[in-house]
Design brief:
three-stranded antiparallel sheet; mainly alpha; about 425 residues; globular
Length: about 425
């Protein structure tokens, strides 16, 4: 039996994302097997780190001792369930360990955690973080949230609360601030996925999403303005002379992204010299490499400006080397996640400083490079189909959402044509 590697332990699920309003973390049953872990809710139990340590102390007394014995009993029951299996799998363990009612009616927190764990396993850590942020926000709104509570009215109340005061304060005691409709949209799409999954598992839920006209909850669209610079602003960036190394790195990485089809920073970080094919850089987007059947290679022309940035910032030119020193050979996926996050943070910090110095009154980030690339192409007359191909989009609708509105001068010029007959008299 392949059971020797299965370990059982009741633990505290720590990490900022799991911290509740009382400053406590949830207590979970952790099952580990074959290098993989899965956590199961210990209903109604949470504690601070110090309190949990005190509870698990073999010399604990009173209420703490009672809780320790409860946790030990949970561990013993889980071990017995595993010993009864012929071959271990998490699914088989759940069938043995969880009551049938709980198998088909797990908490909403369990569903979110399962999804986040699944995303972690395929190295979709950013998306996993968004799922954890979603349930944390929902619990902040209602600490007793459950599937049964979720109705169109309930979701609208959550939306209203979020845009007024739902943004988590960065400092204790800081003034409450509202979040954006963009974030609400992301969270609600995550929740919709979870609800669909629960319904497929026969959890009794009245589906709340749909059109307002049908008395359902309609997920709000983004209210963000398009994040694109004008060609004049781009010229200012190209002409700027950095005053220190941080500005130099941020500016060059931003311009590299802009010049390379608005390449996402995750794709920039993953580029290797083997991606250079004669006069092009060819790559598959990290965002879609595991979600689409047809793997489309995006081609970026290796212009002199692109080559100059590679020569100035790049590693030693060997096929297996990363082009840029953002990742290192042998980095684990968690290390890559942390390094990319820090790289984007640094780039955003110093590109904003550069922008302020040259009179660009926009809060620009790395994301602006992609929108600026597509919008500048559109303003130059490039077909939307071509722009979509360069961005790696599968649907032309996605491309349209990236494109900024025409500049005021261009709109005025086109509007003047509406009465052009006056000039012919």
């Amino acid at each position: 039996m392949d059971l020797d590697n299965a370990t059982v332990k009741v633990v505290l699920k720590t990490g900022k994302i799991w911290l509740n309003a009382k400053g406590e973390y949830p207590v979970k049953l952790r099952i580990t097997h074959g290098g993989k872990q899965k956590f199961y809710t210990v209903k109604g139990e949470s504690a601070t780190k110090d309190e949990f340590t005190a509870i698990m102390n073999p010399k604990s007394k009173g209420e703490r001792k009672s809780k320790r014995e409860k946790f030990e009993a949970i561990e013993a029951r889980a071990k017995n369930a595993i010993e009864d299996l012929k071959e271990f799998s998490f699914e088989a363990f759940e069938q043995k360990y969880l009551p049938q009612k709980q198998q088909n009616n797990s908490t909403i927190q369990d569903y979110f955690e399962d999804k986040a764990i699944a995303l972690d396993k395929v190295n979709k850590r950013q998306t996993a973080t968004l799922y954890r942020a979603t349930i944390k926000s929902l619990e902040h709104f209602d600490k007793n949230i459950s599937f049964k509570k979720i109705t169109p009215t309930y979701l609208k109340k959550y939306e209203d609360w979020f845009v007024l005061e739902g943004k988590t304060p960065q400092k204790k005691g800081a003034e409450k601030k509202g979040g954006s409709y963009t974030t609400v949209g992301i969270y609600m799409r995550n929740l919709r996925y979870i609800i669909n999954r629960a319904i497929n598992n026969n959890v009794a839920i009245e589906y709340p999403f749909g059109k307002k006209d049908d008395d359902k909850y309609s997920i709000p669209d983004s209210n963000n303005k398009k994040k694109a610079l004008t060609i004049q602003d781009i010229e200012k960036l190209f002409s700027y002379k950095p005053t220190d190394r941080n500005e130099y790195l941020a500016l060059n990485y931003w311009l590299f992204s802009y010049l390379c089809n608005g390449m996402n920073m995750a794709d920039v970080a993953n580029l290797k010299f083997s991606n250079i094919k004669q006069d092009n850089i060819e790559f598959i987007r990290q965002k879609t490499k595991d979600t689409t059947k047809d793997k489309t290679f995006i081609k970026v022309l290796l212009t002199p400006e692109v080559q100059e940035i590679i020569d100035n910032l790049g590693n030693e030119q060997k096929p297996d080397n990363y082009i840029f020193p953002i990742y290192s050979i042998g980095d684990t996926e968690q290390v890559k996640f942390n390094r990319l996050k820090q790289h984007i943070k640094n780039t955003n910090k110093y590109i904003k400083r550069v922008a302020e110095k040259i009179g660009i009154n926009e809060n620009i980030t790395t994301y602006w490079a992609r929108h600026s690339y597509s919008t500048v192409l559109k303003r130059s007359g490039a077909p939307i189909e071509f722009i979509g191909e360069q961005l790696g989009h599968q649907d032309i609708k996605t491309t349209k959402s990236y494109l900024d509105s025409f500049e005021d001068e261009q709109r005025a010029m086109y509007s003047a044509n509406l009465t052009n007959f006056k000039n012919n008299k």
